[in-house]
Hints:
The complex is a heterodimer of chains A (about 290) and B (about 270). By secondary structure, chain A is of the alpha/beta class. Chain A is built from 10 helices and 13 strands.
Amino acid sequence: xxxxxxxxxxxxxxxxxxxxxxxxxxxxxxxxxxxxxxxxxxxxxxxxxxxxxxxxxxxxxxxxxxxxxxxxxxxxxxxxxxxxxxxxxxxxxxxxxxxxxxxxxxxxxxxxxxxxxxxxxxxxxxxxxxxxxxxxxxxxxxxxxxxxxxxxxxxxxxxxxxxxxxxxxxxxxxxxxxxxxxxxxxxxxxxxxxxxxxxxxxxxxxxxxxxxxxxxxxxxxxxxxxxxxxxxxxxxxxxxxxxxxxxxxxxxxxxxxxxxxxxxxxxxxxxxxxxxxxxxxxxxxxxxxxxxx
Amino acid sequence: xxxxxxxxxxxxxxxxxxxxxxxxxxxxxxxxxxxxxxxxxxxxxxxxxxxxxxxxxxxxxxxxxxxxxxxxxxxxxxxxxxxxxxxxxxxxxxxxxxxxxxxxxxxxxxxxxxxxxxxxxxxxxxxxxxxxxxxxxxxxxxxxxxxxxxxxxxxxxxxxxxxxxxxxxxxxxxxxxxxxxxxxxxxxxxxxxxxxxxxxxxxxxxxxxxxxxxxxxxxxxxxxxxxxxxxxxxxxxxxxxxxxxxxxxxxxxxxxxxxxxxxxxxx
Lengths: 293, 267
């Protein structure tokens, strides 16, 4: 079994302008759920489309289940489930017609799972795809992604346009899939509560780089926002220490940094002969601090 | 290796992607349907009998069937329907099969007209045409076996009688449609990765339309064998060679397009 079924190594990619991704490194452990966060335009969808084999990196390499996703054969692609940001399913098809395509191409297609999910989400095989609401279209795309029981599941904004109940149901289904089949999931979202609820690990993408990639607990335990003030020997200049964000104010410096045994707010306050005030951040605060330019 | 079930399911899916194909089919069908009611063996001009006005639709059909995501980008505007390309490319379906089924659909639709024309031609296989230009008349008589000059009753003007001429023209049209479909495939796969691909495609489309008319207009004034008729006479006298080369070109072109499609990014 491959330890990291999803691997992005030193990937750079642009679309005619400045690079969307710059030396991106990302790895997802087998059987885990990875919450992929970032602002609009940060490169989440580009990364996921690369993992799905739709686009290639300009530099670096991408591996899914140990293989280049762009050249995956139909047989190897059996293990990869993908739900795009847009449904991508033709409007003039019936749900039953699209499901027939799934049944024809996937030996592992789980018809009983499909029937159960259709009933749960209130969808019928006779529905025309164009008559579905945006939320229903996403639910159906989700069914198409998980019905083959994939080993790796890529979900781009799975919860967009969904009501709270449907969102919760999708998350529960993802968890069930993991429990049953050791599936590895990477999903992007703007809904931080979803990430807190299901993700084992979190990655925050900003300006084409992955700013952090670790478990939520580790993130919450190690990232702090510290205000230093009342400097007795004047404020320090230049790159004062490794930090995610620095805001210089009148007589004070606010740092968002990662603390560890060697670097604590107290040691910094002692070094600069000042006082400090430390604030514990929740996921939303961390996301905002790390995503800002 | 794909199964017949996979092939037909995918083919059905392609049809459902694009309901506009149906409208094109109606537009396509007008000329041969009209021709079915025409039981006469006489045609006023050989050039016009060889002229296939529907040939331009092959380009449009090719665009909608082979590269629907490109057709979707109508002058930089995205239409509100989905081509399904991204959906298919991210399923466990061979990219070659996706392209091959699209190409089969294109050829099936494109060959509909010449097949109808040929069926209609079998009812009255012979053809009598007027050919005003002497060099063309001579070339016709020299290259098409059994063709003879006849005098039109009443007017006395000379006609060319072509035994099985209508069938020959039907085969010529079929050949033209196949070559056009092949050229469209290759053109689409060449421009597909380009940034201004839709603009380039439509620019070429209009150049071909007006270029074709321009060539036909030039034909009238020069006392030479018009290039289209010249090619037709060569086709008529070397049919086996033409069909053999066409089959080879279609197979090679198809394989090249499939490989190209599989290697292209789909943004």
